[in-house]
Amino acid sequence: MNPLAxxxxxxxxxxxxxxxxxxxxxERIIAVLVSPLLFLFVMGRGLAGHxxxxxxxxxxxxxxxILCMVILFTAITYGLYIIWDKRLDFLKEVLAAPIxxxxxxxxxxLGGMLGAVAEAFLLLVIGAAFILPLGPLQIMAALACSMLVxxxxxxxxxxxxxxxxxxxxxxxxxxxxxxxxxxxxxxxFDLNQSGRWLRLxxxxxxxxxCVDLMRRILLGWSVLPPALDLAALLVCAAAAAAWGVVxxxxxxxxx
Amino acid sequence: MNEGRAAIQTFRLTKRFGDLVAVDGIDLIxxxxxxxxxxxxxxxxxxxxxxxxCTLVKPTxxxxxVAGHDILAAGLQVRRNIGIVFQEPSVDDLLTGRExxxxxxxxxxxxRREIPxxxxxxxxxxxLSDRADDLVRAYSxxxxxxLEIARGLIHEPRILFLxxxxxxxDPASRRAVWGHIRDLKKRVGATVILTTHxxxxxxxxSDQVAIIDRGRIVQLGTAGELKRKVGGDxxxxxxxxxxxxxxxxxFVKEILRQDDTLRLTVPDAHLHLKAILDLCPAVSEVQVRRxxxxxxxxxxxxxxxxxxEGRDTIFERIAGSINAR
Lengths: 255, 325
Description:
The structure holds two protein chains of two kinds.
Chain A: H1 3-24, H2 26-31, H3 34-46, H4 58-80, H5 82-87, H6 90-96, H7 101-130, H8 136-163, H9 169-184, H10 196-204, H11 206-219, H12 226-249
Helix pairs in contact in A: 1-7, 3-4, 4-7, 4-8, 4-11, 7-8, 7-12, 8-11, 8-12, 11-12
Chain B: E1 6-17, E2 20-31, E3 35-39, H1 46-53, E4 61-66, E5 69-70, H2 75-80, E6 82-85, H3 97-107, H4 115-126, H5 141-154, E7 159-163, H6 171-188, E8 191-196, H7 199-205, E9 208-213, E10 216-221, H8 223-230, E11 233-239, E12 254-258, E13 261-266, H9 269-278, E14 283-290, H10 293-301, H11 314-324
């Protein structure tokens, strides 16, 4: 096989492994949906906040943001699990294989993406049934958007995970990266009606563009032009992937 | 075959971990098609040396050519030409045995339509056919090792690294693994580098043996050559006599006292045994045997290879250091 075919083959092999493992653990697939459902049905209904989108409830308004939240948490957590892999010996098998670190990184990112998109799909189905009516085209567009968001988040998680030594860092990343990204991203409020500093923080947060684009797809309403959201996401994803490949280049087995 | 070409050549290969020098400036040539044994106790630097050759660990200084490719500059090319069986099982717990072999074959670019056939054959060889579709999580230690060996062989590498391939295997499985290694050498002319602290393994399998101790290669040669360097036979005596009694016998090459026994190294016990026994007033036990690699190891490192054996776990090492106080 020529080198490129070998690399593509390897990416596919890793993706296949991640998919098999992911879909084998059905309990986890369900467990991941618990907190977004709490957000949607307890906070979304109970809080009964104001929706800036005419003709929608607060629950409908936060649905696209919660959908992105599922992807954010699933994909970043997946990426951080590489720390755990490093401590187990089977990462050696992949590190010793004749594939580039870029192929390993891409295989892993796509694997994480697949898992997160599967969760997003389940939530979309629940949302379409109980929260807001969605057409098939909307669902397809939402899934395409989910793929981009999931790839970005998996890449960030993998890049950080490849550089961290112990699972203790996991909690730090969750507290100082994942939760702030979620809250500043405007999943629960309207950026147009928030203060200047909050807005500035939001525009520095890649998650903002995820939520905004998803809202445009599902509610037909967004703060920024969708083309700008999409461009921002593509730039972020490319940067995260480049950074991730570099992080993987230095990856070694730890004890 | 490429007679005389080097499969592996190292140049002052060194690895330090803080103050510890795990591999200390090793220069080594392994000819193509040989089975080459690295023999030494735990902690001698065998695994570190192999990890560097497999491009899993970066050397502190020095470098090596593996299959003609530099381990620093061309890691990918090195990895295309090698297979590795690790000391600690690195099979994927969350997949089945068959899936492990399939993943590995894909990673190593085995042509897609050959994969199922090869998997069947390898499963058959290592005796795992009936458990192929169980998750590895449910495998015993011996089964994992056998799967790991199947995985290391399935892509038919030019150079195969085996790090303690039979550690923890029962004697029957061990013999089966030796059979595979010999077969691999014969069928595809693969070079095999194996680390072991079992003497029989080095003795039985290898064309050349390198004795490695504290990060250095202290002796190198065929098992026969190394044994000849020590001498022909060993006479072990339990007798009421001191080492000085034999000072007059010029055929005695070496005398070692261990507790209440004397070990005499002589070229040929048949010729000299009577002369030795004549000097002993009372003999309670006498044993004559051929030199083994154990004796070689003892002579060149000053300690027995079995010293470290059985202290593999961290707990036992801690217990050992407490007892030593």
